[in-house]
Amino acid sequence: MSAWEAAGKSDEWYTPKYIFDALGCHFDLDVAGPGARCHVPCHTAITRGSLERDWFGFVWMNPPFGGRNGIAPWLSKFFRHGNGIALAPDRTSAPWFQEYAPKASALLFVAPKIKFERPDGSVGRSPGCGTVLMAAGFRARAVLFRAGRLGFVALPNLGAEMQVAA
Questions:
Q1: Spatial distance between the Cα atoms of 103 and 106, rounded to a whole number of angstroms
Q2: Is 57 left (phi over 0), alpha (psi -120 to 50) or beta?
Q3: Buried (b) or exposed (e) across 69-108, using 16+ Cβ within 10 A?
Q4: By C-alpha distance, which of 77, 79, 66 is closest to 13?
Q5: C-beta atoms surrounding 59 within 10 Å
Q6: Helix (H) or strand (E) holding 60
């Protein structure tokens, strides 16, 4: 467990503005909105009970990472929804990563590590692991390619798509 994920610490860490500037898009819904000042360019935010509610449109998801596998139910719903961008730790050997990364339309491994913001606007230290942006759908894939200067873009299911197209 990383320092910023230590037991008893807050899950309130906000994505910095430069990430959204690089993405250059607007979201219909922030599915894990903090209910406070943040930089997500969206029309609507769900601040409580998101996993039990219906999602719509092009979504942004920076869920609470929580404890071991705490992100799995969020990614499950995200990929069922199939339209948006999710932010997750790049724990490539974790079971949840192995399950959900292949479902992504594209992955953008962000470098250097994102220093997330606290609710008071101060910037946290460098986290223990990096961050990946996961695309669901063609629009999200195009957004990640445009934001490629943030890091390295990978296409995990390109082989399957090429077989369908052939």
A1: 9
A2: left
A3: eebbebbebbbebebbbbbbbbbeebebbeebbebbbbbb
A4: 66
A5: 27
A6: strand 59-61
| Tally of domains in the chain | 1
List Cα–Cα distances, 116 to 15, 57, 130, in angstroms: 6, 26, 11
Domain extent, residue 68, equals 3-165
Least confident of 24-38, 72-86, 97-111: 24-38
Q: The pTM is what?
A: 0.85
- State the Cα angle at 117 between 153 and 20, rounded to 5°: 40
Amino acid sitting at position 8? G
CATH number at residue 13: 3.40.50
Residue 48, token pair as written in the block: 């409580």
Residue with tokens 């979201």: 27
Pairwise CA distance, residues 166 & 164, whole Å: 6
